Task: inverse folding
């Protein structure tokens, strides 16, 4: 089998992973299965990042989304819900018809815009150096301020999480 | 070659947005809504990367954008999970329709 065909087959595999995982994530009423579907869809998107010339971003996708965000949501499910409630949520979903119509309408509008738009590449598009060292240098030079800002945002998020959860606990102890 | 086509990636990103929208409206729990939000953010990141690969002359800017979206999504998920805990402790439910009274 030719190398190019193998690459195309893998691409289709990633697309199927995204579709199946996202479908599982939004339709499954068992929350744990929904998280697993989310992780599967994120793996698929990481595969697409490989095709977009960015293996570093694919690794970060797996590390941050699959490794951190999904695990945190799993913790949220396991700590925050009793088994009885988890069973209670596994009833039928609400307003399925409305949400189906609304999301299909959105899909139609998005695809219509996609169909009618003319995308013209800028001169020199896709020719640049996609390597990790370029990315690191531009993070340090040109996007240094944004990099620092996002560090501050993450710090504030950590403090906020601790404050929100700790406050409720203290009130519970005072009762 | 479907893998070397801007429209493929944009279509996948649009599909992720609509999956997330559907889940956001029909899930019965706050955690399910958070999961759908993550799908939408993933679609946004994919969009940035696709435009960066096929249209933009600067190869780093799309990757920087996608990385920042990932960082913000992580922060947002942490805050959302802790808020869900706080709501759960106060109302003893995670059903968004039963969390409906405002008090100072």
Result:
């Amino acid at each position: 089998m030719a190398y190019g065909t193998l690459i195309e087959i893998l691409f289709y595999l990633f697309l199927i992973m995204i579709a199946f995982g996202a479908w599982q994530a939004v339709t499954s009423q068992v929350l744990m299965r929904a998280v697993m579907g989310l992780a599967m869809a994120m793996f698929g998107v990481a595969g697409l990042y490989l095709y977009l010339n960015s293996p570093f971003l694919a690794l970060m996708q797996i590390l941050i989304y699959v490794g951190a965000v999904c695990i945190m949501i799993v913790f949220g499910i396991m700590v925050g819900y009793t088994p009885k409630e988890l069973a209670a949520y596994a009833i039928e979903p609400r307003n399925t018809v409305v949400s189906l119509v609304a999301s299909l309408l959105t899909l139609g509008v998005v695809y219509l815009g996609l169909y009618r738009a003319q995308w013209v590449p800028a001169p020199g598009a896709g020719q640049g150096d996609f390597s990790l060292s370029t990315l690191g240098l531009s993070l340090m030079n040109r996007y240094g301020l944004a990099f620092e800002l996002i560090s501050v945002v993450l710090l504030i998020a950590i403090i906020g999480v601790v404050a929100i959860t700790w406050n409720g606990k203290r009130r519970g102890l005072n009762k | 070659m479907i893998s070397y086509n801007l429209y493929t990636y944009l279509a996948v990103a649009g599909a992720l947005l609509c999956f997330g929208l559907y889940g956001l409206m029909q899930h019965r729990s706050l955690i399910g809504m958070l999961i759908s939000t993550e799908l939408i953010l993933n679609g946004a990141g994919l969009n940035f990367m696709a435009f960066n690969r096929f249209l933009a002359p600067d190869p780093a800017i799309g990757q920087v954008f996608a990385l920042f979206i990932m960082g913000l999504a992580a922060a947002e998920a942490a805050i959302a999970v802790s808020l869900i805990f706080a709501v759960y402790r106060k109302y003893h439910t995670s059903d968004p329709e039963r969390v409906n009274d405002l008090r100072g």
Remarks:
- The two ends of chain A are 70 Å apart (CA to CA).
- Chain A has a mean pLDDT of 86.
- Chain A touches chain B through 92 residues (CB under 8 Å).
- Residues 112 and 118 of chain A are 12 Å apart (CA to CA).
